[in-house]
Amino acid sequence: MATNDHLRIRDLSVGFKTFQHFEPVLDVWELHIEHGEAYGLVGESGAGKTVLALAILGLLRQPPARVTAAELTLEGEPLLAKSARELRELRGRRISMIFQDPMSALDPAFNVGNQLTEVIHQREGLDKSEAGARALELMRLVELPDPEMMLNKYPHQLSGGQRQRVIIALALACGAQLLIADEPTRNLDVTVQASVLKTIYKLRQELGVSLLFIANNLSLVSTMCDRVGILSKGRIVETGLVRDVVRTPLHPYTLDLLHAVPRREERLGDENQKVFAEVDSTISRCGHYARCDARGPACEGQDVLPLTFVSATHGVACPQVTASLAVYPAAASPTEAREELPTTPAGTGGGD
Amino acid sequence: MADSLLEMTDVKIYFPVRRAIFRRPTQFVKAVDGVTLALEVGDALGLVGESGSGKTTLVNGVTMLERLTSGSIAFQGRELKGLSKREQKHMRRSMQIVFQDPFWSLNPRWLVRDIVGEPARVHDRVRGDKYQNAVVEALEMVGMSRHDLFKYPHEFSGGMRQRIAIARALILRPRLVVLDEPTSAIDVLSQHQILLMLQDLKERLGLTFILVSHDLSVVGYLATKIAVMYCGQVVEYGVTGEVLGQPLHPYTEALLSSVPEIEDEGVDALGSLPGSVASAMDPPSGCRFHPRCEKAMEICTQKEPPKVERDGGHHAYCWLLKPEGNPRHCRAETEKTVGQG
Amino acid sequence: MSGLPATKQAAAPVYLTASRARWRQFRLQWHVLSRNTLQKIAIVYIALLVLVAITAPYIAPHPESIKGTASAEEVLKAPSWHHLFGTDEFGRDIFSRVLYGARISLVASVITVFLSVTIGCIVGVVAAGMRGIIDDIIMRICDIFLSFPMIVLAIVIAAFWGSGLRNAVIALAITGWPFYARLIRGSAVSVRERPYVKAAHSIGASQRSVIFRHILPGSIGPVLTMASLDLGSIVLMLAAMSFLGVGAQPPLPEWGLMINQSRTYFLSAWWYMAFPGIAISLTVLAFNLLGDGLNEVLSPRTRGRA
What we know:
The complex is a heterotrimer of chains A (352), B (341) and C (306).
Chain A (H helix, E strand, L loop, with lengths): L4 E13 L4 E13 L3 E6 L5 H9 L7 E10 L2 E2 L5 H10 L1 E4 L3 H4 L6 H13 L3 H14 L5 H4 L9 H13 L5 E5 L7 H18 L2 E6 L2 H7 L2 E6 L2 E7 H6 L4 H9 L47 E2 L5 E2 L2 H9 L25
Parallel strand pairs in A: 3-8, 3-9, 6-7, 7-8
Antiparallel strand pairs in A: 1-2, 1-4, 4-5, 9-10, 10-12, 11-12
Helix pairs in contact in A: 4-5, 5-7, 7-8
Chain B lengths: L3 E14 L9 E14 L3 E5 L6 H8 L7 E6 L2 E2 L5 H8 L2 E4 L13 H13 L3 H14 L16 H13 L5 E5 L7 H18 L2 E6 L2 H7 L2 E6 L2 E7 H6 L4 H9 L39 H5 L4 E3 L5 E3 L24
Parallel strand pairs in B: 3-8, 3-9, 6-7, 7-8
Antiparallel strand pairs in B: 1-2, 1-4, 4-5, 9-10, 10-12, 11-12
Helix pairs in contact in B: 3-4, 3-5, 4-5
Chain C lengths: L17 H16 L3 H23 L34 H37 L1 H15 L3 H12 L3 H27 L3 H9 L3 H38 L10 H8 L7 H29 L8
Helix pairs in contact in C: 1-10, 2-3, 2-10, 3-4, 3-6, 3-8, 3-10, 4-6, 5-6, 6-8, 7-8, 8-9, 8-10, 9-10
């Protein structure tokens, strides 16, 4: 599987230097995306999702950032070793990003067709009329209504969903095969969101692009993605096939997330609010420590928490879970929320 | 309906579009175009709709932040139109708002103490120790403490800031609390805690809520009744369980099906609507939803649909529900005048 | 490779009084302000200038030079230990006069800016807060004022009322306030749309309370930056007016006036023009740097993520 990976990350660390001290922000143990796959990264605000995207693209200024990794490769090529010029070549051609706020990514002074054509003309070397034709083709691809008319419109004349589609077109303009979508539907209404998500899905089918889909919402990811990684305070605490993670969540944080998602036909139960005890968060490196019900002495300490794989694809970074799994490899786990685990023996090696 | 806390009757709020400085405006943005709803004490009304539906404007009308063009709103039996400034101010004690944006709804230069205490200062002119104690009491109601008195909003996370906003809304023990998208800017885990807290407070203090949201699941949790709005009008109304479980109006159905659920696998489970939200300035003829409706019929383009009631007050405005909604009149292909949104 | 060393976050201290919390805010802002070395130098310079302005009468080596004539034989002497900046055509010590001039320039400039800012801010936020026709009328009045070049208008007013430092200050304040009114109104227009202003309305706060407790503090940022830059410009403008004869009158040791008087002699007595000139330049530069620093500090706080 190693050669099939579009993007491979091992032991990536990102930190920022502030006035007073050095703030570690990301500590990704392992993340890989195969060709044509959609990987969903779920995390709360401030967990580091956007930082990860920027680090992959080489868009973090170092200083004040510091990015180090054992491996950060795009189709086998290490990204951290590349020069600024090489990275510029990469962006758009091989990796592209779709941002949250379409208004800030579009220049309000130029019409949409112009912006698309310009990018194609500059980077692909096509002349203006060929670029224009390709721009039109792209507009059709992202399912914009009336593409010929759209070309002449300015960003402020478009609806939110339409603008987002233009951004997607821009991202695909130079043939990027890996798309990073940073909460692309965050500011959109639900019906428009559904429509844009469907378009992205269709594009994946047609063009075979791989997708890193960043969201703060597990349900978005479960509809769009094949695999998922749960990011908490800069660390991936659980990863696996969407189906596995959603049906048999292992990490307490994932359990909390699933529990907290409002389900449509449910009412709020009679549960009490959690009283979060004042816990010194420096005792443990686990980001969930302060809020965790299951914390224990194994959680203390400053060592990085590795991902332990319980199956070929399903991994979790939690000493409590790993401890119980090691002792009870095939039996049902203690908590009621977990169903019978697959019978592949729990190992402590990183598997791919 | 002696218990009616709030009654809205045919409320219309139009905004004039000024073409020239001295000419009379010819066009209006019909943000709210004939809404009739009633709220009883202890209710929690969920106002659902996408951007442009008019829900925020309607709520601004209720809280006297916008003036009505026509129609009436009566709070605790008193008509809100024509109240003097002093009477208006007095009314405001009993109705408070929690805004959507937990950062900008709190003055970033003020201390938490002053933010939460502002209503007390403005209405009761409380000062000194009494003031501080009132503020501490309000903070404790939302799970915060006196240690948070002298901090600034930016020192807190989004969920905590929203709690501060809620404390501010509750300090004068109002009867009606309007929550404008209270959890949309907050992470899932904090959202859950806030919703639990709101439910608890509602019961303990005997509050009545109006919950404005585009997120049906959040509404589903807290609201007892739901009103779905589209283009300035209510298209469906009923008890939460019924509206979410057996929606009558195609728009409600579309809203429900476009929300991704955890159990869904694959995008096909998501429903979506063609087109974008109808313009409030130039709404479509007949039923405003018809350009985007798969099941639109000839009559839908001509006449506004009537109210069709089911049991228990559950009603919707749709021609499909009427016996005359004859399948023979179904349009084979809805002309998609505005493409996908 | 293990991750980066985890640094211990200081536990958030609990403040028992409002004033201590505000002090902490101030110190944080101060830290941002004085980050840049150049700005630190500027702040030090201004502090020194203020000190000089306060103590001028006491530290000037030749206090009699400030107003009256000194000994006739000391006329136009080059800088020496006895007279650090040399003497002028009346034998007065230029160093003492420059020191005293600091007092004049600073005080006059501060008063002018203070008047402009106060009048401008009140008018501006009222315009933004009241909206509608009041807003329009006020802004048109400002436009009328602003269509004249500021210094020309000031000169005309001063000439009309008679020259003298006091009238120059008033003239500059009159020509200056519309600028601040416009500036703060622009800022206030966006501030008044902010949720916390709407929240204040919904709470029932009076129009006046909303304008002065919410809108004004929220929109004053750009004004403060501009005002600190303005301090420098006003020093320059006062000097210009004195240079032209409509500002300070002799024998006041105002820097601009000194440059005017030095015109006749500057070929032979360079020190006469140089030192007041340098004083003006450094002062204006320092205020400009201060203004830049303030701009950083007062920019809207970055929105924290939830």
